[in-house]
Structure formats: C-alpha cells, structure tokens
Write a structure and sequence with these properties.
Two copies of one chain form a homodimer. Chain A is an alpha/beta fold and 353 residues long. The first copy, chain A, folds into two domains: 167 residues, Isopropylmalate Dehydrogenase (3-Layer(aba) Sandwich), CATH 3.40.718; 164 residues, Isopropylmalate Dehydrogenase (3-Layer(aba) Sandwich), CATH 3.40.718. Chain A contains twelve helices and eleven strands. Chain A has an eleven-stranded mixed β-sheet with strand order 3-2-1-4-11-10-5-6-9-7-8, sandwiched between helices. In chain A, helix 8 links the parallel strand 7 and strand 8. In chain A, helix 4 crosses helix 6 and helix 7 packs across helix 8. Chain A is globular and about 60 Å long. Chains A and B meet through helix 9 and helix 10 of A and helix 9 and helix 10 of B. Chains A, B: InterPro entries: FA_synthesis (IPR003664), Phospholipid_synth_PlsX-like (IPR012281). Chains A, B: Pathway: Lipid metabolism; phospholipid metabolism. Chains A, B: It catalyses: a fatty acyl-[ACP] + phosphate = an acyl phosphate + holo-[ACP].
C-alpha cells in the first residue's frame, strides 16, 4: 500500500478520513451508506481541502459491500482481521485484538497514512487504543471526550470531559479547558470562546477542593474564563466551553438523554389522549417530529477525542448513516483547521506565559 | 407559649407543621396562600394524624396577613426577628442571624414544640442551621437533601444527595442509601425499595474508587441493592432510590431542569412556526400545557433533608402556593409515618447485622 500524499499542492491540503467499518449497532451497512452520502459533491464543498476516503475492517465483508454500492474505486479498503464488540472490555480489546479495525486505523493515523479515524465502536476501547497508539500531545496528560450540546437560538456548547476520565486533578481540568477553547476557535470560528467550570453554584465557595483549585488556576490563564457555570447553563448562550471531570460529564449527558426521552414519552401520551382532536394531534405531531429533529443528539453526532497526537472522532454507537456523516464532517473540520497543531501551540503558549 | 400536646389520644397522633414565613421568592404572600389551601378539609384527610399549623417569622409582617385572610385563629404565629436572604452565605446566616425564622423554627422542632419545619428559603442556610440545631441521627455522619424525580408511567425515583455534600466517602453514600430506602418504604409504601448507585456504566469496573468501594459495601447490606445505574435510569421504572454525592446529584438535577426548559423553548418555537395551522397549534399547545403540568418540578416539590434528628423539608425557592402545599404534605407524611424513628432503627439494624 502506498502512502497517500500529504498535500495535493499549495493551499490545497488533502483531508484523508479513515472510517471504522465495524463500529456501531448498524455497521457495516450504516457506515457504507454514510460513505455514499459523503461522496456526494455537496459534502466536500464544505471544506477547503480535498477529501480522500478509506474504510478499515474485514476485507471479505467490506469489499463486496463497496462493490455492490459502486464505490469501490473511490474508497480505499484497509484490511483488519479482528472486530471489537460493544461488550468487549477496553483492556481485552487493547491487548487481545491487535489487528482490530480500531488498532489498524489508529496505527494508520499515527504513521501518517491517514489524517483522522472515525469510529462508532466501543468508546472505552477506542479511547484506550487511541491513547496507546497515538499518545497524547506534549503538555496533555490525558485525552478527553468532548460533546457538543445544542443550545437555544441554534447555539451550541462544548462539554468536556464527557466520560473518559472519572477522576481528574485541577491540572487535567485546565488542560481540558485549553483543548476545548482551541476546538471552538478552530471549528466554530470563535475569537475567545467563553470557558466555564461546571459547579453546583456560581459562587466561588461552592464545589469540591479540586474544583476550587481549578477555578483559581483557570483565572490565571489567558483563556476567556468566565467562572462557575451550572447544569442549567449548558443550554444557554452564556458559555461556549464547559469543563468537568468525566464522571460528572457522563452523568450530565445521560441525564439529558433520559430527560429528553421522558419528556418525549410524556408528550406523546398527551398527544394521544382523548382531549386533543385527531387533526390537532396530527399537526402537533409534525411539530413534535421537527422538534425531535432539532434536538436530535445525532444533529451534533461526532465527539472528538481531544489531546491525542492525531485526530479521532467517536460517533454514537446507535448512529444512522446521516448521523455518521456528521461525525465524518467533525473529523474533516478538525483536519482542515489543523486542530492538533493548534492545541499543541496553545498548550505551549500557556506553559510559557 | 405552651408546648402543644404530642398526641391527641390513642391512635391519633398530632401532626404539627411549622412553616417559614420568609423563605421563597414570593414569600410571605405565597406561604399564606399555601396555608389557606392546607386548611381546606381535603388536605388533612390524606393523613391519619390531626394537623396543627404554625408560621414562624416577623410578627409585624405576618400577623396582619393572617388576620386579613381570616386564618389567625387557626395558625399559630411564632415570632422571629431576622430574615435570611437568598444571597446570604450559609455561614453568615448561621452565625449572624440567630433569631432568623429558620433558626427559631429549627429550635422549635428540636425542643419538641413542633414536628417539622418547611421552608422555601436559602438551601445552604437551611441545611447548615438544621444540622447545627437538630444534629444528625445516631449513625449518620451527614444529612442529605433528597429529590423526587418523576418517572414514566407515573412512577417516581428518589435521588440523594441532591447538593448538600460535594465530597462524600463510601460510608456517607451507604448512609444515604439506608435513608433513601427508609424514606421510600415509609412514604411510598414500598416493601423493599430498589437502590441503585449512580455511575457512568453498569459494569462493576466503572467509576471512581469511592464508587467502587461503595458498591461493594452496599452489596453487603440488607438493602435491596441492584447495582450501578446511569443518568438515563432516573426516569425509568427499574430503580426507586438513586444514590450519588451532592456534586453529581446537583449537576444531574440542574441538567434536567435545563434540558426541560430547552425542550419547552424549542417546542414552543416549532408550534409558533408558520407550518402548523393556528388551530392545530392551539390544540397542541393545550397538550403541551398539560404535559408541562405533568412534568412540573412543583408536582414533587418538597425535598426532605434526611438524617437530621427532626423533620425539615425544603421547598423550591420559586415555588407557588400549590407547590408549597406539596412540600407541606411531604412533611406531614414524614411525621405521620415516623420517618425519623424508622431511619434510626434501620441504621441500628444495619450496624448490628
């Protein structure tokens, strides 16, 4: 296999995205459907670079599917023999499945053959393998999973860590703040993203010792640190990056998911009760569907694993093809905006200042 | 002032509820409106004991209001000169406002004049003063705030701690589990409430060291411990009591509130968009209103402060009179069911077993 060229000429960088053919509940069909959508002309027009696509996984499974869709000449197939299951423990996947699609994909990114790996597979395994193979960036102790949360008036808030690190020191949290700020600068074009620390009140005396220490350290950085924020602020327009440890972040994310599901369930019950006439219910239901679409977690599918020496994006395991395309576009944007270099540079600057 | 009788005869316990006249955004008018609703015959019929009502606060403010409503002969007025503001720090309120309505109310409960204090005031101050004045029950190191969460099919889940203790040891969490289980037994009539530990995955290897240790300790108690639960499970029917530290619990609660507000905002936007005809929108809106009512946090207003040597219930600061009545009924039920004695007995049994 030849190494793809790193650039295709001055000003036109290649964006080489490798997708995991075996991650996700509906893989591999869902992944192939997504690739077809990505190959449509509209998709690559969003980015300044030229898009190159690859899929990593079992050749005997993926080759016929690529041919059947007529995209075998436009998508490189990178063979990997093992498949990591959603129930495999990260440590088992890490040590026993070294020829898995995730292992091979991460090595391809590490060795410069591809710019980014996108996978809808097992989160723990993806993080563990990526960390082992790619290592962290200089100045970053631990990578974090970042999650984009929809906010009012089409806004969005980046929360990190969303679950990779249950226990964090203040230094880890400060590093998350730097990475989150870089991410929102690079991908959303914000000049000085507002960084908040997730706490249980806005006053300085609130929270754990780690949180109080983190707050005083953040105040000394050149970040646009706005202080403590609360769970209610995640959906508002007053903060761009919310920093927390992975335990709290994961509980917050799953509570959001639970609340939304509970409210949708209750709403459906109201709409099918006898009081609302059928016509009204139908009309309301169409509004409900559009609303579901707006707040669909898949709308912002694609959680970047930040802090790695290479770009890795996690798609929701239950993603459909359209959502998986979102995850691919997150990866494309990171490559297009040189996110890895930017984070390295920012950490360097913070350390020096 | 004479001490009210502890019982009014065999089998008919008195339920003596003292409410804080100054807590909450709309106090004192909201509190007085609530008292009028509580005095209506339907309310006390829910309980086996006979209801006696008191209000604590500034005499010159509350006496005319009681008279104006014609309930001055049916509600005892307990004078207190200080008022704690929503922005007073707990330590300031604790040390500098010793004749506040909360201080006086807590002392009245401690000295046996009243059975329970209900306040919509400053949570931190209410907890700090209650802990100082009432002390904790034997075997309980720290009181916790418990919050009732609506679940599907009219179910409910008790989550604790909801914000009193940012940092907890495994022993604290086990004590929360015992208190929560007792509470659900006493007030919901459950035989063996299912207790879950809030974690970031259902597997035993997930979470912090404190969480893992807590899980192994819980498995050794006689509680009906079902293992790890996640944020999504709060709204389901598979768990009755969810245990977590106050930092995580508070973030979860505020994230719920934020999600619900964001979804309501988005839904409203959809319903007022041009696509839905006015008639449909109106019908859908009435469904939305009923839905809001169903998931209204006020529906379960009244967060018990568990583990104190006396009954204290916190109402939401933004409660209206109807919500405040819910908080009063939470207190009534705790008195009616001898919650404090039950918790003491359960802790005793757990220690001995």
């Amino acid at each position: 296999m030849s190494e793809p060229a790193h650039t295709t000429g001055e000003g036109s960088r290649e964006i080489r995205i490798l997708v995991d053919g075996h991650g996700g509940d509906a893989a591999p069909a869902m992944v192939l459907d997504a690739l077809q959508m990505v190959l449509a002309p509209g998709f690559s027009a969003q980015f300044s670079g030229t898009l190159t696509l690859g899929i990593v996984g079992q050749e005997e499974v993926l080759a016929p599917l690529l041919r059947a869709r007529g995209i075998d000449s436009r998508v490189s197939l990178i063979p990997a023999t093992d498949v990591i299951g959603m129930c495999d423990s990260p440590s088992h996947a890490l040590r026993r499945k070294k020829d898995s699609s995730i292992h091979v994909g991460a090595r391809m990114v590490r060795d410069g053959y591809w710019d980014a790996l996108v996978s809808a597979g097992n989160t723990g395994a993806l993080m563990a393998i990526s960390k082992l193979v790619l290592k962290t960036l200089p100045g970053i102790d631990r990578p974090a999973i970042a999650s984009m949360i929809p906010a009012v008036d089409d806004g969005r808030t980046l929360m990190l860590d969303a679950g990779a690190n249950s226990e964090c020191t203040s230094d880890h949290l400060v590093q998350f703040a730097i990475m989150g700020s870089c991410y929102m600068q690079a991908t959303e074009g914000l000049d000085a993203p507002r960084v908040g620390l997730l706490n249980i009140g806005s006053e300085d005396i609130k929270g754990t010792d780690v949180i109080k220490l983190t707050s005083s350290k953040l105040a000394e950085t050149t970040l646009n640190y706005i202080g403590n924020v609360e769970g209610t602020d995640l959906f508002g327009n007053d903060v761009d990056v919310v920093v927390c440890d992975g335990f709290v972040g994961n509980v917050a994310l799953k509570t959001m998911e639970g609340t939304a599901r509970f409210l949708a369930h209750s709403m459906k019950k109201e709409l099918t009760s006898g009081v609302v006439a059928k016509a009204g219910a139908l009309m309301a239901r169409s509004a409900l569907n559009r609303f579901k679409d707006r707040v669909n977690p898949g709308k912002y599918n694609g959680a970047p694993l930040l802090g790695l020496n290479g770009i890795v994006v996690k798609s929701h395991g239950g993603a459909d093809a359209e959502s998986f395309v979102s995850a691919v576009s997150v990866a494309c944007r990171e490559v297009d905006e040189n996110l890895t270099d930017r984070i390295t540079q920012s950490v360097q600057e913070m350390v020096e200042s």
